[in-house]
Specification:
With about 170 residues, this protein is of the alpha/beta class. The protein contains five helices and seven strands. The strands form two sheets. Strands 3-2-1-4-5 form a five-stranded parallel beta sheet. It has a two-stranded antiparallel ribbon with strand order 6-7. α3 links the parallel β4 and β5.
Length: about 170
């Protein structure tokens, strides 16, 4: 029996597209709603780091930035934009400009796999918020492994595995 490569490629594309929609749009939206409820129950604001800008994120280019926090930060945002729930301001997850425990919840979606030191970023998030909610790509989605800006795969139990870009850059 001969393979029908057109059907195989079409099924692969459908799987990859479905995985992207689930992992990049649906999972983060659900986690953001839960994080918002938690922050509201604590009576404290919510910080969203990695909100996205059209210049920094394919998702933000299509759907706009993810404005789920009272403060929405992204490394690619203009440095002079004031923080607020309706805009993305500049912010580096590894050097957040807030006092300890300013926020009830710090939320990130598809951010930690891009930073040089995810452990430092997680520690900084834990410093500024009572609770931290991180959404990272699922292991079975093609974009997790193929997106060239991903430096890490971060497992649910806290382990990190370097991806090809990170390994290549650190070989020099």
């Amino acid at each position: 029996m001969a393979w029908n490569w057109k059907k195989v490629m079409m099924l692969g594309a459908l799987f990859a597209g479905g995985a992207y929609v689930y992992d990049v749009l649906m999972r983060p939206a659900t986690a953001a709603r839960d994080a918002r409820k938690l922050a509201d129950s604590m009576g404290k604001p919510m910080l969203n780091v990695g909100a996205g800008t059209p210049e920094s994120s394919f998702r933000a280019r299509i759907a706009g930035p993810q404005l789920v926090g009272d403060h929405n930060l992204d490394l690619a945002a203009p440095k002079n934009a004031p923080p607020g729930p309706d805009r993305v301001s500049y912010g580096d997850v590894q050097k957040l400009p807030y006092r300890d425990k300013t926020f009830g919840v710090a939320f990130t979606s598809h951010l930690l796999e891009h930073v040089d030191d995810p452990d430092k970023a997680k520690a900084e998030l834990a410093r500024v918020a009572d609770k931290v909610v991180n959404v990272t790509p699922v292991w079975w989605a093609p974009h997790t492994w193929l997106y060239p800006d991903h430096q890490w795969y971060l497992s649910g139990n806290g382990k990190k595995f370097p991806l090809w870009r990170h390994r290549r850059r650190n070989r020099r």
